[in-house]
């Protein structure tokens, strides 16, 4: 007797979320975009924690199209 168990996997996530580093959702679906936990002090590169009315959430700081993401040499310009 065979049991045909089929797991539904619409999308297989293998790349960690750029915002929180967790595998399992897209960057735009990150819960951090709605609310950042209190114990979290920093988010992924290209994102920043924004405090609005006492609540913190992550916002994308990248204004360039995703296609140009590989050309991120600008962070070498460390102005100090
Ligand atoms: Zn995330």
Which keywords apply here?
binds zinc ion, zinc-finger, 0% helix, mainly beta, two-stranded antiparallel sheet, zinc, Znf_CCHC_sf, 2 strands, 80 residues
Could you give the order of the helices and strands?
EE
Give the termini distance in whole angstroms: 69 Å
What structural class do the secondary elements suggest?
mainly beta
Query: How much beta, percentage-wise?
Result: 15-25%
How would you characterize the largest beta sheet?
Answer: 2 strands, antiparallel
Q: Which runs of at least 5 residues are low in confidence (pLDDT < 50)?
A: none
The count of β-strands is 2
Shape: elongated
Tell me the number of helical segments per DSSP (H or I, 4 or more residues long).
Answer: 0
On the 0 to 100 scale, the average pLDDT is: 81
List the bound ligands: zinc ion
CA-atom Rg in angstroms: 17 Å
Percent helix, as a range, is under 10%
Strand arrangement in the largest pleated sheet: 1-2
Walk me through this protein's architecture:
It comes from Pyrus ussuriensis x Pyrus communis. GO terms for molecular function: nucleic acid binding; zinc ion binding. By secondary structure, this protein is mostly beta strands. The chain has a domain at 27-66. It has no helices and 2 strands. It has a two-stranded antiparallel ribbon. The structure holds zinc ion. Residues 17, 19-20, 22, 25, 30, 32 line the site of zinc ion (ZN).
């Amino acid at each position: 007797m065979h049991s045909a168990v089929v797991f539904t996997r619409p999308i297989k996530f293998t790349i960690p979320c750029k915002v929180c580093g967790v595998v399992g959702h897209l960057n735009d679906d990150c819960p951090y975009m709605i609310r950042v936990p209190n114990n979290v002090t920093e988010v992924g590169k290209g994102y920043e924690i924004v405090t609005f009315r006492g609540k913190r959430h992550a916002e994308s700081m990248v204004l360039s199209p995703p296609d140009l993401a590989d050309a991120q040499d600008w962070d070498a310009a460390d102005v100090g």
